[in-house]
Amino acid sequence: MVLVHDLPAGFLPADTLICENQVLHLAPLRSFETYDWSSGSTDSVTLFEGWNNDPGVYTFTLDVFDEHGCSGKDTVVVTLEDCNTSTGGVLGSDQNIKVYPNPSSGVFVIEFEASRSEPAQIKLLDLNGRVVHVEQTGVTNGLNQIQVNVQNLAAGNYLLQIEVNGEVSTMKLKLMR
Question: What share of the chain is helix, strand, coil (3-state, %, to 5)?
């Protein structure tokens, strides 16, 4: 009896659009034995940081081998746009968001103006895209200063995300000890 396995296919998410202030975590929809991204990474997840690239269209290809030794290839297209011209969101543009001190010893303040009161979520992600801290808060119309304490986290580089009403702003944060 011959056992035939399907070749891995269609395992990356759909093509997408992000803003220059965002980070996209590109990952296959299932796990494989090996990963070879067109960016050179061999990790299961690769990060595309909008702020490190110019607006345009970027193509990422992933070659994989599954547990049966079958190989597959899939591609995702990421369109990167300059979204800073939009000021209709609750948070306004990312230039209005300050994080200090940065680098931080683990306690820092996020300061920004909001156009209305809304619930908010603050996340810290490590550079592998894993969420390492989440807290629920709220923003009010006007100046907001939110103190965050993550002294339990190891020193290193993190991504700080603030989400208000579906609008996500991402910035870099460095923790030092």
Answer: 5, 50, 45
pLDDT category of residue 83 using cuts at 50, 70 and 90: low
Handedness of CA 114, 138, 24, 102 (dihedral sign): positive
- For 112-166, what is each residue's pLDDT tens digit? 888 888 899 999 988 777 889 999 999 998 899 999 999 999 998 888 888 887 7
Rounded CA separation 56/60 (Å):
13
On the CB side of 37, CA atoms within 13 Å amount to 19
CATH 2.60.40.10 region(s) of the chain? 16-81
Q: Are 20 and 50 in contact (CB under 8 A)?
A: yes
Q: Which of 100, 84, 95, 112 is nearest to 173 (CA)?
A: 100
The first and second tokens of residue 49, run together, are 């940081």
pLDDT at site 43: 93
CATH of 16-81, one of 3.30.110.10, 2.60.40.10, 1.10.357.140, 2.50.20.10: 2.60.40.10
Q: Please give the pLDDT value at position 86.
A: 38
